[in-house]
Amino acid sequence: MKGYLILNFTIVDDEKFSKYKEGAGTILKEYIKNGRAKLVVNSKIDENIPKDGSPREIVQVIEFVDMELAREFYLRKDYQEVLGYRTKGTSGWAVVVPEFQK
After folding, report:
1. Are 88 and 30 in contact, with CB atoms under 8 Å apart?
2. Is the pTM higher than 0.90?
3. Mind listing the pLDDT tens digit for each residue in 49-63?
4. N or C of the chain: less Cβ packing under 10 Å?
5. Which domains does the chain show, CATH number per domain?
6. Which is it for strands 37-44 and 58-64: parallel, antiparallel or unpaired?
């Protein structure tokens, strides 16, 4: 069963977010290079995109080959070390979820 890291956020501090992007990007590239993950959505929401509720400015969805790998990515020490830059540099949320199963 695939796992997904879904993020929805607005950048509130460019400097902090840049540090997150650099650190998390390096880690994610390792997973992508080895075929264990792929970035399936990386979009900025604008006024022309249908939406409801209160979505943040950016939506990212990272697909992992399985749920355990998604958990491993999120919980690994080096990702946790840069995570604070995202939580301090953005307003929004992130969640790791399994794919839908009938």
Report:
1. no
2. yes
3. 888 888 899 999 999
4. C
5. 13-47+54-98 (3.30.70.100)
6. antiparallel
